[in-house]
Structures are given as structure tokens and as C-alpha cells.
Amino acid sequence: MAKIKHTKNELKAQRDALRRFERYLPTLLLKKQQLQTEMRTLDQKLSAKTGEVEALRSDMASWVRLFSEPFDFQSCLTVTDIRISEGNIAGVNIPVLEGVDFSRQVPDLFESPLWVDDALAAVEQLTRLSVEQAVMERQYQLLKEELRTTTQRVNLFEKVKIPECREHIRVIRIFLGDQQTAAVARAKIAKGKAPKEVAA
After folding, report:
1. Total structural domains in the chain?
2. What does the alpha-carbon distance between residue 9 and residue 105 come to, in Å, rounded to a whole number?
3. Which of 14, 21, 33, 83 could form a disulfide bond with 98, CB atoms 3.0-4.6 angstroms apart?
4. Could you tell me the residue range of the domain that residue 55 belongs to?
5. pLDDT digits (tens, 9 = 90+) for 73-88
6. Distance between CA atoms of 73 and 104, rounded to whole angstroms?
7. Contact status, residue 95 vs residue 144, Cβ threshold 8 Å
8. Integer Cα distance of 95 and 138 in angstroms
9. What is the CATH number of the domain that holds 127?
């Protein structure tokens, strides 16, 4: 336990600190609950997004071997911009995907295979889903880190700071009470001696 002064000023400081901790703790608990709720929601969204990617890949499985034919996809489809803004959840700045922009060149229909249009659409959709998934995973990691920090603070307040302040207040009050009792006893002794000395 930290060394404390046994004074009225220290008692006031400890009481103020206890009030401050007890006032701040509910805010931390609420933030912890919000983060847990958001992480559960985000986890469900990530599972759904993973399901979409797997469904798309299984749809593509029947004709994905056509990609082995020589064809320059990069000249037909490129990602021009990934628009990401910043959002805020329970005080945590997170990336929010606004959209993915593609530049799509129409291939020469006479020189390109029949499956190219479907393949370009599938690649575009797969790329978009992959970017969405990556942004969600980054959000999840940021929220997870903040939840860890918030949980540490909640534990610090609940298990260390608040009990420590209460114990300090108890010790100081006992000490001050003993001092007051001793002062009263000294005053009574002094008062008892005073008349005898005057009489002598």
C-alpha cells in the first residue's frame, strides 16, 4: 500500500479521488459494453462477408479453369480508388469503406473469349468483397485493442484504485479518531491537574 499522510487534507484528497473514480467507472463500463456489442455485430458481419466470398468462389469454381487461357485482365479491369473515411465507435477512430472504384475497359468482343464479361464481373465483385472484408478486419482489430485497454482500466478502478482509496480513508479516519480521543483525554488530564495546582 502507498504511504499516505494521516491528515485531514489527505482525507479530503482521498475522498475526492474516490468520488472521481466512482463517477468515471460507470462511463468505462458503458464503453466496455458498447465495444463488446459492436465487436459481436462486426463478428457476425465478418462471418456473413466470408460466406459471400466463399459462395462467389464456389460459383466461380465451375468455370475458373477458363482463367488459365491467356488473357490480359489488367488491361480490362483495374482498381482506380478505394475510398475510406473515418468513423467513430465508442471513442475509437475506425476506417469506414465508402466504396471501391474500378476502371473497366470493354475488351474487343471479336478477339476476346465469350466468358470474359462474366469473369470481369466476378473478379470485380471478389475484389470488392475482399476490400470490405479487410476493412472490417481492421475495424475489429482496433475495437479489440480498445476493449483490452478499457477492460484493464475497469479492472484497475474496480480492483485497485477504489478499494485502495476506501482503505486509505478508513486508516486516516481511525488515526484522526485516535488523535481526537487522545486530545480529549489529554484535555481532561490537564483540566484535572489545573485545580490541584491552583489550590497548592
Report:
1. 1
2. 77
3. 83
4. 8-183
5. 666 778 888 999 999 9
6. 10
7. no
8. 8
9. 1.10.287.3240
